[in-house]
Write a structure and sequence with these properties.
Layout lengths: L1 H14 L5 E3 H6 L4 H9 L4 E4 L2 E3 L10 H10 L6 E2 L1 H10 L11 E4 L16 E4 L12 E4 L6 E4 L1 H10 L7 H9 L6 H10 L3 H14 L26 E2 L6 E2 L6 H7 L1
Parallel strand pairs: 5-6
Antiparallel strand pairs: 1-3, 2-3, 4-5, 7-8, 9-10
């Protein structure tokens, strides 16, 4: 028994670095019961954060540091959480296309999210999404992005822009999406083709081509809308919008083709 406990402690000290977080589920998966976890607290090897979550003590560690939370989710607890959407775009250098904000929302995409996220001090900033937008594994089309606490698994810019489109019109603005599209000149058409083929949202695919047509980046000519399932029939999306003549989805006037916009005016 003593040797088993030494093995468990060795795993904890080697895997959960000072300042990192670990939850009850992960501890139990490695044979560390709640009773043993409390002994580790008494010994100074763990400290409680919120119910179901612990931290290796470190003087300057803050559980509110979202990058530390995500790093722990991905590399200590092995959750399928991927930083996506607007957050992924900001981390990969698109922040200069986006307006400055205070504490930004953190968009996480995964097959399951731990309940303790909702108990953190800044729980309200975490926007938790499922993986239903794409018919593929959550880890596909991701990339490691450097951060002060180590690499974070993020959606590629091509995946992130589709995730951002999914936020329209209620949770994101047309101006933000339009501004990001302006900076997507280096997007990879093969990656976009795969993602569009796996995308389950007719709305997102139609909107993608609306924005892509407007900005006319070089990669647009490699993507034929006819190769993807864009559904049938008109889709009303924006209040007081106009129906796009090619993609049959209501959009604000600024997203209409120029000839149509002049005619509407």
């Amino acid at each position: 028994m003593r040797r088993q406990n030494e093995t468990k402690l060795k795993w904890l000290l080697e895997t959960v670095l000072p300042g990192r977080l670990v939850d009850t589920q992960t501890l139990q998966r490695h044979g560390i019961t709640r009773m043993l976890a409390h002994k580790y607290i008494d010994s100074g090897w763990l400290e409680p954060v919120v119910r179901g979550l612990y931290r290796r003590p470190k003087a300057d560690a803050r559980s509110a540091d979202w990058q530390l939370v995500v790093r722990s989710l991905q590399h200590v607890m092995d959750y399928s959480s991927v930083v996506g959407g607007r957050t992924a775009l900001e981390l990969q250098g698109f922040a200069h296309y986006l307006p400055l904000r205070g504490d930004q929302d953190v968009h996480l995409y995964g097959e399951a999210h731990p309940t303790w996220l909702k108990r953190l001090d800044e729980a309200g900033r975490y926007r938790l999404h499922s993986t239903k937008l794409f018919d593929m594994h959550a880890d596909e089309e991701t990339t490691d992005v450097d951060s002060p606490v180590g690499p974070l698994k993020c959606s590629t810019p091509e995946r992130a822009i589709l995730e951002l489109l999914d936020e329209l019109p209620k949770h994101e603005s047309v101006h933000i999406v339009d501004t990001v599209f302006e900076g997507l000149a280096s997007a990879r058409p093969r990656r976009l083709e795969k993602l569009l083929a796996c995308c389950t949202s007719i709305k997102v695919k139609r909107l993608f081509f609306v924005f892509a047509d407007k900005h006319g980046h070089a990669w647009r000519r490699h993507l034929s809308p006819e190769r993807f399932d864009l559904g049938s029939g008109p889709r009303a999306l924006f209040d007081k919008g106009q129906f796009h003549p090619r993609y049959a989805i209501s959009v604000p006037p600024e997203l209409m083709p120029q000839s149509e916009a002049r005619h509407g005016a």
